[in-house]
Amino acid sequence: MTVSRRTLISGLATAALQLTAAAAWSKGRRLQLSAAYGDGIFHTQNLRSFAARVGADTRQSLEIEVMSNSALKPMAQVLPALRRNDIQFGEVLMSSCADIHPLLAMDSLPFMVRGFDEAARLWQLTRPVLQEFLLAQQGVRLLFAVPWPAQGLFCRRPVNSIVDLKGLKLRVQSDATKRLAELWGAQPVVIGAGDLGTVLEQGSLDAMISSSTTGADSQAWKTMKVFLDIKAWIPKNMLCVSELAWKGFAEPERQAISRAAVLAEKEGWALAQQADELGKKVLVDNKMSVAAPSADLRRMLDLMGERFGREWVAKAGSSNMSVLMEYNKKRH
């Protein structure tokens, strides 16, 4: 197929106008960052530190305004808004975007990781693929990702085996927890985050999978007696920047953003682990039993993780299987 001289000139002119507009825009407006959670959450605090570093490193040629609690855009609208450059930076829970790429769901597959070290290794394997995909298909650059505290098991009574969970009323708040309730023979009870505290006070729940920090915030000890640190999964938030905005930044500004992103990821992972330990301490201080799962239970959970992996591959396709195979090879 041949391209006419007029078409070529028109295309080049359009590209030049986009770059010129992006450059002019980046110098003339405060940049906006959509943070998904509240000001008291360590993720948001980490994003504010990231923004401050970028401002200081660029001598305020780039000023990033962090808007918390999804005040700019609901999480589901963040990636499309970034693609259009309606906002310049945006935070999303990775697994909430699993419909656009199956690797975005991997960090929320039950029992794929046993701790933060394995979660970090899984992230290093998935990062390059996701960076390439998001840039090529979504028009956004993935800057960094930070985990939440690990998901553990709260229960009214000790749990030494999967059998001990049969028949219990288990809170379900996602496809993964619904599937676990099914596999464990538990009774699924749908409870939203806003209703959790009330339900716990009423004592109408036997077990739930959540982080130590959520347990501390919701005062889980009012009903639950045990927290098993099973590290069911360690989900992550990712921060992306609009590619249209990126094209408008000068090279020193891009370097400043990249440097700040490296530090934000490193500090964010440390903050997640600190929050996890602090949450468990609060549970202990309120007379809850906090322990690792027994060896038998750990083995059962690992086998369940292999099952979830097989089910994921069946949906994700063979093209994505290599990441899981490489991860498992280094894990065992």
From TrEMBL:
Protein name (Swiss-Prot/TrEMBL): TRAP transporter substrate-binding protein
InterPro entries documented for this protein: DctP_fam (IPR018389), TAT_signal (IPR006311), TRAP_DctP_sf (IPR038404)
Listed CDD domains: PBP2_TRAP_BpDctp6_7
Protein's UniProt keywords contain Ribosomal protein: no
Classification via NCBIfam families: TRAP_S1
Gene3D superfamilies assigned: Bacterial extracellular solute-binding protein, family 7 (3.40.190.170)
Keyword Hydrolase listed: no
Record keywords: Signal
Signal peptide as annotated in the record: 1-15
